[in-house]
Amino acid sequence: MSAARAKVESFVRQNPLLFALVPGQDDRSAQLVEIGTGKSLHVEWDEIADAVEKENPLRRSPYLVLVFADGRQIALADVGFAFAPSTINTGTLPDLPATFCFRDFRHLSTGVQALLGDEGREGEALSAVMLALALLDGARNAGFDVSREERQLDLLLRQLEERGATP
Fold first, then answer.
1. Residue 125: left if φ>0, alpha if ψ -120 to 50, beta else—which one?
2. What are the φ and ψ backbone dihedral angles of 124, each rounded to 5 degrees?
3. Of 114, 135, 133, 136, whose CA–CA distance to 124 is shortest?
4. Has this prediction a pTM greater than 0.85?
């Protein structure tokens, strides 16, 4: 067993309320499941180049950064899966955080809904939609299925377009 795999298995055992590990058909792969959202990530053990243990200095909580051979990095953290956003479809965004998690999508989409309830707040709603798009692009690049969130974002975009706000 590789050192990276041992670290992943240990982290999951220590955080059973955050993650579950479902063994694959063979001993070479597994599904990492985020308990809070049900999001999962298929991992081939030999594709993980390193697993680096770190600690969040603000919350004093440990997290594990998985470094894949193809350059992807995904953290297993107290917020669930954490990953870098992608600005490929948005361009540069002000106030873009270095990492996102799926909870952030829920907060952004709920915020957009609230903003759409107020006249004149379309610009703020559009900014939140752009952040959500960068989040989903980052999640997709990391290997997650984001089809459900994409459908939700499409609905929000249609509502914004109906109000005359466009990217």
1. alpha
2. -65, -40
3. 114
4. yes
